[in-house]
């Protein structure tokens, strides 16, 4: 019988080979910000996937916390996280890699008939195809296909099989295409906002900003039931801020980005937002 390898041991092995790693907690999502970094008071902006100046010793800020430093991985803040971790994630872009996340059989068929073969790792529902080279990370570049590279994280599911190929132009070109209509992405948010349908309750922009920041934090710190948390948060935001016309595409994009950082797909975000609007009669 094979003894399971502890996530921290896996992380140390990967770090030694130059792969930046971070722990994932229950729900297979990154750990939330520590009290020092809560609400991004430290200057980091993980929910917007922008690395800030924060150099927190804890595994804060999702992909931006990924490290190859063994001393960091075994440090007290990280050691506590590893005791709760369920698996290891890594930052593909930091390792010079791009992961093509194929979510179903149709996506795998498309890749096999369109792209050069490369290292392949089985996932729960599909496969990860790993290429040498980096690019912009995008969700829903086509049905069932996400790109994880720069400023993103992917679960470590094993070394996989096959020889790793160079990132082909056919994958790079996916970043230039419009998102698939069947995986509605948050880039087309104008149709998801509500117009001015009531009196504005916001005396200052700070009120709205605080509401959005609190919603981002609620999603980011969800310990489980992420789908339900995202829906309830969207419902709360819309019920408070959705009828006066002050809610902009930028605000909605922030909420979608926070949800996607927890593992939600663009389609799930859009469906949750639409369902929340429907429930409120918008």
Structure summarized in a few sentences:
With 282 residues, the protein is α+β, with helices and mostly antiparallel strands.
Average pLDDT over all residues: 82
Q: What class, by secondary structure content?
A: alpha+beta
Biggest sheet statistics: 6 strands, mixed
Order of helices and strands: HEEHHEEHEEEEEEHHHHH
Tally the helices. Answer: 9
The helix content is: 25-40%
Shape: globular
Report the β-strand fraction as a percent range.
5-15%
According to DSSP, the number of beta strands is: 10
Q: What is the CA-based Rg, rounded? A: 19 Å
Extract low-pLDDT stretches. Answer: 45-51, 178-187
From the N-terminal CA to the C-terminal CA, the straight-line distance is 56 Å
Characterization of the model:
Helices cover 34% and strands 14% of the residues. It is of the alpha+beta class. The protein is globular. Mean pLDDT is 82; it is low at 45-51 and 178-187.
